[in-house]
Structure formats: C-alpha cells, structure tokens
Design a protein that fits this description.
Elements: H1 3-12, H2 18-39, E1 52-56, H3 65-78, E2 83-87, E3 99-101, H4 107-110, H5 112-121, E4 125-127, H6 131-141, E5 146-150, E6 162-168, E7 196-200, E8 208-213, E9 216-219, E10 226-228, E11 237-241, H7 246-255, E12 261-264, E13 283-287, H8 288-294, E14 302-305, E15 308-310, H9 313-327
Parallel strand pairs: 1-5, 1-6, 2-4, 2-5, 6-7, 7-8, 11-12, 11-13, 13-14
Antiparallel strand pairs: 3-4, 8-15, 9-10, 9-14
Helix pairs in contact: 3-5, 5-8
Length: about 325
C-alpha cells in the first residue's frame, strides 16, 4: 500500500496511531499560534485596494474549491463587477515573480487549476505563492474591482473581506485530527470564523449546498465534438481522475449508467502519454482538470466531462449583501 493511501485510511476510516496523534498536537499548536500572530498584528497582513473574497477549506484534498471559484467569478461578472482571480499555482514550477495565466498557458508552469479557471471564466488570473503580490500585479495590469483568492484560507498574509470555507459533504472532517494524524490543516473550530460555509453534497445547518453537475462528454482532440454521457452506455471505457477525491468523479460516471475501468491518480498529477494507454481501443474519460494537462497529446478517443457548480440563490444574495456592507463600511450578521 502506498503511504498516501495508508494515511487516507487512517484519516477517514480508522483511528490513527498514537505516534501520529502526538505529532498532530504539535501541528495544531503551531497553526493556532500562527493565526494568533496575524490576528494580533504580530505578523502583518497586506490589504489590497479592492475587496478580496477567499475560497478555501480545512482539509487536505479537493472539496470543490475550484468549481466554486469559477462560479464566483462568473457570478460577480454577471452582477457588473470586474473580477480577477489569484492563486498559488500549485503543481506549477516555482515562480520568481507573479505571473499571468491564460487559457493556453502550460499547466506545468502555472498549475492546472489556474489554467482551468482562466479557460472557464475569461477573467484575469495571476499566480504566485505570496498572494498579495499576485493581487498587486493583477491590479496593476488589469482594471479589476474585486479579487477571488482560490485556496487561500490559510494564507493570512493576505487580508480578506469575505471568507468562504468549502466542506466535503461525504467525508466531512475525517477523524477530526490535524495533520498528520488527520486531514485537517486547521482545527475544526476555525470553521466557525468563516463568513460562509459551502458544502459539496449533504449540507448541514448554516451551510449552502454546492452541487457539481455535468452530463456530457467533450472530445479533447476536437472540442466541437460533444455527446451526452448516456450515449457512452455499453461502450468499452476507462476513466482517470487526478483530483483530491477521485472516487467522486467515478461515482458521477456510474450515476450516468456507465461501466468502466477506473484509474485514480494523485491530485495535480503530471500525466505522460504512456499513462493514458491501457492496452485497448476503448474511450478514455477524464475530469476537466486532468484535460488541461493532457491536451498536448490528446487523441480522438480522449474525452473529458466538464462540471458546472450550482448553488442556491440565497448564496449569491449573501455575497452581494456582504459586499454592499463592505462598501458602506458596515458589518453583516
């Protein structure tokens, strides 16, 4: 068993060893002290000249942050804002300065999720580990009046106006321990400090339910070719997923009535052409995040399944209410 799989089992299925629990206590203390340092002003947080909405989560792995970021950018644009998106650029090469991301940027350079965001939103996107610098560079180059920070909940060096925490409705917070005994990057009580909580499936009280829906396959070699997933029933299929929770993608395909051979990969995996060959002539289905890394060597049998985030109307209303309160210098309940 791979070390990552061993850890996942203990995070979500079994009680962790006492040795990991002890390390978890040290990790928890460190992150609490770090947050306190920013809260008390011992460490500075830079405030940008436009409102900043931060999207993030407490657990390691995917919870739907990027689809939500895309939804937010599109929603804000529809409301008359000029949004920009900033990201660390995880999975890309180390950058010496903030870098713009375009729909045709190399994901190996800037990260797969920023390329996906640029493709789906047509908004300015900049990446850099220090998000405040990324934001300054974006604002200097583009006429944006609001920023969305993808996966920035723990990046306290950037001051934020709205915090949105995303929760996995199936796995929730695992065993409740911080790393390495559990999947938490911060203690669970941190969730109470977020302005809004979004849950991908099975929302609880005071959470907004996020659903990801996609019912068609898009040909990776020629994106003009599309077909409903239902037309893939009975075909010889394989499926890959290099996301935080590959099982969620596979479950979505099974819900569409598809029978396939599944091939999970690590999150942000950098694919090679050989890894997409499974010794048969069947079609290969993948996530849209995987597709941005496989486009350069796509064949006619490669397909991706795009998803769209859907949220209740009340969520958008809450966002607008908070932005209005920020503009008026008020606080919201």
């Amino acid at each position: 068993m791979k070390p990552a799989d061993w850890l996942q089992q203990r995070w979500y299925e079994q009680r962790p060893p006492l040795s990991l629990v002890a390390l978890s206590g040290l990790f928890r203390a460190a992150v609490v002290l770090r947050r306190l340092a920013y809260h008390r002003g011992w460490k500075p947080a830079e405030r940008l000249p436009v409102p900043v909405i931060v999207v993030g989560n407490l657990t390691v792995g995917g919870t739907g942050k990027t689809p939500l970021t895309i939804w937010l950018a599109q929603f804000l644009a529809a409301q008359g804002f000029k949004p920009g998106v900033i990201s660390r650029g995880y999975g890309g090469r180390k950058q010496k300065k903030p870098r713009p991301v375009f729909s045709d940027s190399d994901p190996r350079e800037v990260g797969d999720e920023p390329v996906l965001i640029a493709r789906r939103t047509a908004c300015p996107v900049y990446v850099f580990p220090r998000r405040a610098e990324a934001g300054r560079a974006l604002l200097a180059a583009c006429a944006c009046d609001i920023l969305v920070a993808d996966d920035g909940l723990q990046h306290y060096a950037l001051a934020r106006d709205v915090e949105i925490a995303v929760v996995d409705g199936e796995r929730r917070h695992g065993n409740g321990y911080c790393l390495p005994a559990g999947p938490l990057r911060e203690p669970m009580e941190r969730l109470a400090e977020a302005d809004l909580i979004v849950c991908q499936g099975r929302a609880q009280v005071n959470e907004f339910e996020l659903s990801l829906n996609g019912d068609e396959a898009v040909n990776l070699a020629d994106e003009r070719i599309r077909k409903p997933l239902t037309e893939c029933r009975g075909m010889k299929l394989s499926a890959i997923a290099g996301i935080g929770n590959p099982g969620r993608f596979f479950a979505r395909l099974r819900q569409a009535g598809l029978d396939f051979e599944e091939h999970p990969f690590p999150d942000h995996h950098d694919y090679t052409p050989q890894e997409l060959s499974f010794g048969d002539e069947g079609a290969l289905l993948m996530t849209e995040k995987d597709a941005v890394k496989c486009r350069a060597f796509a064949g006619p049998h490669h397909w991706y399944v795009p998803v769209r985030a859907e949220l209740p109307p009340g969520f958008g209303e809450k966002i607008l209410q908070r932005l209005k309160a920020i503009r008026d210098g008020q606080k919201t309940a």
